[in-house]
Design brief:
The protein is mainly beta. The protein has one helix at 17-20, and strands spanning 28-32, 45-49, 58-61, 64-67.
């Protein structure tokens, strides 16, 4: 995400959009850090880009991400 967002950037989140359509590839999502993740206690929310949805197959080969064989 650093090519899109830099560390320390601030974002405005519209949680209503999560109810208007299903999450799609390429969406940027914000979610609470699961308690089981070993991140600093000061980290409360995480922001990630969706690269796959249920049913997709993700492969990592030679530092490249492949989705559904492409």
């Amino acid at each position: 995400m650093e090519s899109t967002l830099d560390i320390g950037d601030r974002v405005l989140v519209n949680k209503t959009s999560y109810h208007l359509h299903s999450i799609r590839r390429g969406d940027v999502v914000v979610f609470r850090q699961p308690k089981s993740w070993p991140l600093a206690a000061s980290v409360k929310d995480l922001i990630k880009r969706v690269i796959a949805i249920p049913g997709d197959k993700v492969y990592i080969h030679d530092c490249s991400v492949w989705l559904n064989g492409n």
